[in-house]
Design goal:
alpha+beta, 3 helices
């Protein structure tokens, strides 16, 4: 019987130690949290300026390089990066393209969608780097 008590005490000690380690691992990574809090917000103006540097992604529309003429973006998110974004971009030849844009932590972007009112033969994409920081409107 004496050995049974020792075995039970050993099992309980291992269980308590495991619980303490598991709870410790669930604590916030303070360095990661500090970096996220210091992340400057992305503003619509910064994203629009970056999109103005993009070329028309439609096949046959990029020669000579047709840069965007205008861009208007609106954020649907409340985070510092503002994801997801909806951006309407106008290139020299119609129709306009409405992109669903994601801003990554390194401030690079990726967006995809189709032209307004004129489906294309696939999804159009836009990529770029890097969105300047600014206060989101």
């Amino acid at each position: 019987m004496r050995h049974g008590g020792l075995l039970l005490a050993l099992i309980l000690a291992v269980g308590v130690a495991t619980t303490v380690l598991a709870l410790h691992d669930r604590e916030d990574n303070t360095q990661f949290v500090a970096q996220q809090r210091a992340l400057a917000p992305v503003g619509a103006l910064g994203l629009e300026r970056l999109l103005l540097t993009t070329s028309d992604p439609r096949p046959g529309f990029s020669r000579p390089p047709a840069r965007a003429l205008s861009a208007r973006c609106a954020s649907a998110g409340g985070s510092a990066l503002g994801n997801p974004w909806s951006c309407l971009v106008r290139y020299p030849r119609p129709p306009r393209i409405r992109y669903r844009v994601t801003v990554h932590a390194d401030r690079s972007i990726f967006g995809s969608d189709e032209p307004e009112g004129a489906p294309s033969r696939g999804v159009l994409t836009v990529r770029g780097c890097c969105v300047a920081s600014g206060v989101a409107p």
